[in-house]
What we know:
Mean pLDDT of chain B: 84
Strand content of chain A: 25-35%
Mean pLDDT of chain A: 86
Radius of gyration of chain B: 35 Å
Oligomer: heterodimer
Amino acid sequence: MTKMKEIIKVNGLNVGYIDEVVLSNLDFTILSEEITVVLGKSGCGKSTILKTLIGLIPPLSGDVYFFGEKVDYNSEIVLKNLYRKIGVLYQSSALLNSLNLYENIALPIRMHFRELPAAIEKEMVYSRLSQVGLEESVEKFPAELSGGMRKRAALARAMILDPDIIFCDEPSAGLDPITALGLDELMLNLKKHFHITFLVVTHELRSIDKIADKAMVLNEGKLHYFGNYPDMKQLNDPFIDSFFLKDVKYDN
Amino acid sequence: MKMTSKDKNDSDNTFCLVIPETITIENVSTLYNEIKQIEKKHGVLHLEIDLKNLREFDSSVIAFLNYVKRNHPDVSVKNASEHFEKLLEIFPLTQVGPDRAASREWLSFPRRRVEALADRFLGVTGKFTRFFMLLADEIYYTFLYLFNRKGIYPGEIWKQLFYMGYNSFPIVCVISFLVGLTISITSLEQLQRFGADIYLADLVGFGMIRELVPMMTGIILAGKIGASITAEIATMKVMEETDALKTMGIIPEKFLMVPRLIAITIGIPLLVALADMIGIFAGMLVSWKLSGITPNLFFNEMLLSVDLIDFLIGMMKTMVFGWIIVVSSGYKGFNVKQGAAEVGIATTQSVVLSISAIIVSDCIFAFLLY
């Protein structure tokens, strides 16, 4: 078994906005080839922490290390290098509406590896499209795709450059269970065979059960739990139990 | 550093390509170029791809292998690790579509042109139909609202009136003053040649009230209000907010457009009245300072040639321009389908459409009222 590397290390991180601390004093380490799910109630800061890690929201304080190196979120060069190693799947898919599916997925290659022969680019794009089951829709524009198809296309774009880690913001939201399962299996395959690490913000319990190696539970502005997912399920913690609908009694 | 080692075996016409230790998207082009050179030099051969040295790689090497397999009928891969075999299963040789440029090649050029022309004609007629249907709907919804006072958000008319009227007042006044000034100075120069300075009052009064102020106000509001209406409605359409209105039982065309139409119907005459006064004041200032005609004389002369009916015609024209702006902008906004790019295009198109429609209708008015 290969030794797991530290992909992300976070020390004393405070995240939020100028006038509002959303999450404080976060400490955790994300190892390679693991899928970490971020759990918590709506509005608890799941997407905020994800956006902070990828540099969309500047951290209020604390240190973030990617691949052992401290990230200076104010440095454009550092962020540019970081974006070459990570992929992001946005909640709204965020495909560019002016480009068709092929052009959307080829976009990172065209931006970073202009010299790559078109034939190789085509093979790479089609292989990703076939993995997400969209090879028939290559000429279509995002507006012509369903929500599920857009999500899958966005995952294909996120993984086109073989990133070390892919951040997923609610990947299964709005998808039917079969498509969501396909997406989960795709993530597991990518983890197993391409050693890609995932940090997934999700509410889908079925998806969490299938993919999670580690869990990060956020509650009341703090890191409530961070550790192995199977261990978490044995904890008998009231908040975690309520999240997983254990022993919840309804009036009717 | 030599990237690959290759060996041509003449006896069985086999070419062996040994893949180096590290191949990623950074250096896969070298392999691609090497294959191209082999093809050029030796033609189609039996290719043997040896992966014995390959240690570090990404999916681009699989894309390369798939490319080779697709373009060479006779390829074999040897010494692939178990892990690599698994990856080849995950990234199988997929059906690669035709290049985009070639997708309509089956149609002959003349037929493509005829089809394009027909599409364009049908598109234009369809657009006209939709525009006039929206106009008819809006007239109906506005009168319906005036009778039953339902279907629009309370206070929205005042909000729109404030935005369209009060917020537009400074720019309309400044432009009107400057246009009045320019027209007066250039006209006075010509009139002085014939000693007819006093007729500047007739020219400025009639020109500003009947023609220039309505037209200038229309064009300014097309840029200021029209663009914002289109951008707002188009963004709401893209964000599925208009769909949400529909599912709440609210008619978006009524909810969003009627307040704007009522606001512009009330606001634009007030703006025009102000702009008329300021434009005439500019003319009066020029004739007083440059020609010595007193304000009293100027107004007396102006009132000899300008009647109340001219003022009312100017008002009526501006109200029509206002309706053109709101309906054109709404039409462009509601016809956006998806995407931020379309919002920008629709906004530009709405300004162009509004200004063109204002000029065309002004021309029609000129013929009708001659």
